[in-house]
Every structure is written in C-alpha cells, then in structure tokens.
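Have a close read of this protein, sequence plus structure tokens, and explain what the tokens say about the fold. Thanks in advance:
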Amino acid sequence: MRSLSIGILLLILLSSETRSQPDSRFRPFDWVLYRGSGEINSITEGFTYAYIATSMGGIKRYNLYGNYFDEPLTTAQGLQENSIHAVHFDMVTGLIWAASKNHLQYSFSREGDWYSIDLKNIGLSKYDQIQRIGSSSDFVWLEARSSYVKIDHSSGMMVGIYPMPDELEIKWSSGPYGGERILREKFESYNLLDGWIFNGDELIDRLGRRANISTGFIGNHGNIFFGTNEGSVFYGTQTMETFSIVPDHIVNTDVSSIFHSENKLYIASQDFELSKGISQYDLAMSTSICFPFEETINMTPTPIYSLFHSKNELWAGGDGIILYHNQKDDYWRTLGESIGVPQGQVYDIYGNDTHLWVGSSRGLARINTTTLREDPIGIENIFQNMTIFDIDSINQGLWLGTRAGIFIYSSIHSQLMQMSDIGRKNFPEQLRNVVLLEQYGSSVYVVSDIGIIEFNIEEKEWNLLFTSGIYRNETIFSMALNDKFNFLGMEGGLLKINKRTGLVRDYEFSFIGRVNDIIVDGKEIWLGTPNGLIKFLWKRHL
C-alpha cells in the first residue's frame, strides 16, 4: 500500500498538466454533456461499467447491471477533448486511462479529476496516435502506430518504447477492428435484432444502409460489445446469443433549440448532417427516440432554429420551412413558402388552439393549424424583410421582439401597438434589437441592445432593470426565469442574475460554449449549445 501511495504521488508530480472539474465546488456530474457518439473507437470493462470511447461524444458509460447508458465522461468532467481514440480500465489499480490526439489521461475516481500527460512526455508525437491501451500486473501498455510504450502503472513513468511488448500477460482493451478470428466467430454465432443483419465485417439496417464494424470487445463474463463507424453500439450476452442496439441519450452533436413539454425535451440542431435529426428525450426515463431526416418520409433535412410543441403536434423552424409532426397519427410534413412560411431563418414559433405564429429573419406569418395554410390578419406586410427574433402571448396580446423594437398586437381591438402605447417608459433610450422577451408572474422581461427591461403588467410601467454592462455588452442568445433569478445564455457560457440584488454568477467554462437555449426545470437547468445538450444541477451551488 505504501509503495502504491508513493507511486500515485509520483504520477501526479510527473504529469505535464492537471485538470479537474471546472470549479472545485462542483461534483463530477453537476455538469453533464450529452452529444452524439460519432465513430466508436474503443471499449473496455470495469467493475460496474463498460467504457466506450467515441470520436465525438467522449467516453460513454454502459451500466452492466442496469443495461443502460449512464452519464458520459466528457470535457465537463475534465477530459481534454471529446474525441477519444482509446480507453482502458486497469483492474489492478482501478484507474481508467484515455487517449486523445495530444494527451494520455487518467482518473483515480473514474468520474472526475482527470490528470493529463502530454504525448511528447512519453516519447510520442501527435502523429503517433494511440490505438489501444492494455495493462499487466505492473505496467500500462500503449499501442501506437509503429511502437509500444511501456508505462509504470503506479508512478506514471515511461519505462521504454518497444517494437513489441516484452510481456505476455497483457489485458488489452479493444482497438480498431481488424477481422480478428475470435471476434468474428462471436459475431457470426449471435443473432442481430432490430432489423440489422451481418454482411461480413459490415452491418446493414432495415433501410439498407451500411455500417462498418469499427471495434469489438469480449468482457470478463463473456458479454460482448461492438461498435460501428456511424456510432451504433451493440451488446450481447452468452445466455441469449443475440445482439441488440443500445440507445444513446441523444443523437445530436450540437443543440440549437430545446422545447420542454409534457416532461419531455425536444432537441434540434443546426448541423443536420452530423446530428441526423430531432431527438425526443424523456426526462423521467432518461431515454430518447430520434426522428432521423434520412429515414423519415416528408421530413426535409434543414438546420433548425426553433421548436414548438403542443397537443401532440411538433413544429420545427428551419430555412424557410417548418417541419410538422402529427404525433397522434405519426406522420411528418414539410411546410414551405406555398402555405405562407416566410423566407429566411425561422427564429421563433408560437401557437395556440387555432393558429401558429411564425417569425423569421425575413418577416412574420400566421398559419391555421387545422388547414395548415396561411391565415393573414393584415399586419404581415409591416414586418416584411424585418427580423423577428421572438414571439410570445402575453396579457391577451401577441408580443413581437424585432430588430426595430417591441410590437404588440391586440386581437381584441385588432390593433398593432408599440411599448409607449401600453405603459409609461421610465428611461429615455430607444429599444432596438429586442432578441428575447418572456413573462414571469406580473412582469415581462425584455433583452435588448441597452440591457434588460422589465414591464410591470399591473402598474403598466417600463423600467430599465439592468444595463447591458451587467453582461459585458455581449450578445444574449437565450433567457430563462424563475422566482429569484434571470438566467442568460451568452457566447461564452451561462449568467445567473439575482433579480432583486443584481448579484451576478458567471459560469464561463470552455466545455459550455455559446448557450443557444435554456430550460429551467426545478433543480436542473438544460442548455442547448454547439457542443451538445448540457444538464446543470444548479441548486447545489446557490
């Protein structure tokens, strides 16, 4: 035990750099980043989990006892990047090792507190990609492109570089699949479920699409995993001798829009090629289903900028089109200019029992939800070629946040008004670029180029709550509210503002990036970012 403790100390000292959680006050999974996998590169087995290295989604953790994916290990837990080439669990030390483009990383806890070694410090360059990791009773082994690196698994010191390992008893985790006989025999002896079939070293799904086996791994108890180049993971047991696909949390690699409805999150992306489609994530079950562009009839591939869900109907705003899903009868339609969808990027959608309001970078339209046809009311021409950022129904009026300010349409009086028509303005500045507006209680909160404006519905007063200096005059992309706080999504992360005191807490971590959308759901905050979907357990850190 004493030698192991000394070795661990040396390992820490010899590391070129260290990374832990984004803040020492956070627990390892206070922040969780979910994103699509990309190619499956490597698989290993630990005490509780199978760890799966992916090219885009970090390290996925498959619970061997519950048969589901648990929270993944990503840059939110301290990994240098989410593209992991190889992963290995050392049963002797309990350490998990991971290799990426420039680094070899390890974790004592197997959750957070990742330590990092630069590849050049162990005799490798960025061109010497680590393809496989293994371990013996005393050493960790790295298989690079043309050599093997031997590392003392207690001290982390490089012992040497060899053309071939000088040990026989090495337990290897999986690397690139090369048609190994043992794996091939296993694959061929098991049956594939869910409409997949084997065709040599590739698979064919029920639609005829092909995927290549990228890696395979036989576990300690005969259970077997294999992954593909398109991100699917299959799991089989000796008892059933069948392979079934393991559903991932989401398929999206980036998240541009989130909509919360009926305890589900609807998730969409701008990168429709990598992200494949729209995800529906069940918050209670922690499972998701995907509506893929490629295999869904009448679902046109498009970047998606907005979502709206109500009464078993999902609407997704794209480039001059809306994707419509009737969930009751399970069919999709693509709605375009012919039915009145305005040109440009559809930034927001709002609906009620009879109509859908659509705002884009080029204007405004109202669509009848029964006929799925345009049903204009006469104000649309006013907003032709005007950017509509946000639409909401507030105090029996339709509120529009636009590049030219706030407009309010009263259906009762069939009248279009501006902010001066409905209340007293207690500041001299003119509002421009109203990007967000939202009602909470008896107040409406507005984000514009001058700051955050509050409209008191009962007092009919407009007040400048905070100037834009409170968020460093940066562009605000998203907003959410609760009783106490105003949450703002910016280019570099999340901002939490106490509405009463103005006290600001800045969560500006590299793994977050731009926050496109925010959902506050009790103790959890969900963020849509270019890096994926992020869950933050914010109430632990009030």
